[in-house]
Fold this sequence. Notes:
By secondary structure, the chain is α/β, with parallel strands linked by helices. It contains twelve helices and 13 strands.
Amino acid sequence: MSLGPLMIGLRGTTLAADERAWLASPLVGGVILFKRNYAGREQLQALVEAIHGVREPRLLVTVDQEGGRVQRFGEPFACLPPARLLGHLWDRDRGAAEARARELGWLMAAELRAVGVDMSFMPVVDLDRGLSEVIGDRALHEDPVAVSRLAACIDEGARRAGMAITAKHFPTHAGSKSDSHTHVALDRRDYDELVDDLAPYRHLIDRGLRSVMVAHVIFPALDPLPASFSSWWIETQLRRELGFSGAVISDDVSMVGASVAGDLRQRVLKALDAGCDLVLVCNDSEAIPDLLDALKGYVDPAAQLRLMRLRGGGKANWQALVAAPEWRQARAGIDDLNSRPTLELEG
Length: 347
């Protein structure tokens, strides 16, 4: 059995019988966890082990553990800073910012791998254009060079801990004021105005980027569909123009920004038809049986291979990790970054 094209959310802190049955389907490729699924490290590790124990090859277990406003797991996991603090450090000392970014990538990944989580959907490589509130301080910097370099350093640190990063939100969410979680999001720029926004992807792809998350943002000058449902964006631009050979993952198709593609069944099918390898359905468990029915017989061997490459490696146990000098040093460095005055995030 291989990894399928659906990634689903769970309702609570343990695996329910119906959820276990869904995960046993070859049409499911993994699980994305949220705060509702977290009640402590030991509970989380037991849940991850239960998910991984459903079948072979084991399913992917993922989370949004960016830091700042978007961090699903709390203590004893490190309180990761908003990405923009790395950007502020870059403005003062580029070498220090790159070192801290490597440290952050390693710490985030090492802690998650110590409890069996395969991947965190980060970093955000949208530029800080001061327009998109949903991005805000999740962006590393407004300068594409800074974003490219800092994201590459996060990637370097995460890989050393056994985790692939996911660059998001392709091609960009930075030019839309609307939040695609709650509204249809538009970016009215033409292609030649997106050169800087695409630069971090070019840089990371050249370094072997394994995963990209595609945004539910419409660029009406280029395609009437959101990028997540657009073969022009996924196949023509991401695959052919940028040369990306890794996994393409949709943002959550239950978001309002995806509603222009139809009902949930239609959204999943259209995302796959456009070139997504994995489609996120995070918050609509009642729809899962219907989606599994809609996808009966669906097989994409190339996508399955790309998804298998996202499984985490280098797992260590938590006790060994927190006893390691590198962990203590990384925690101290991140604590120092978090202690920077909050006014640095303004502007």
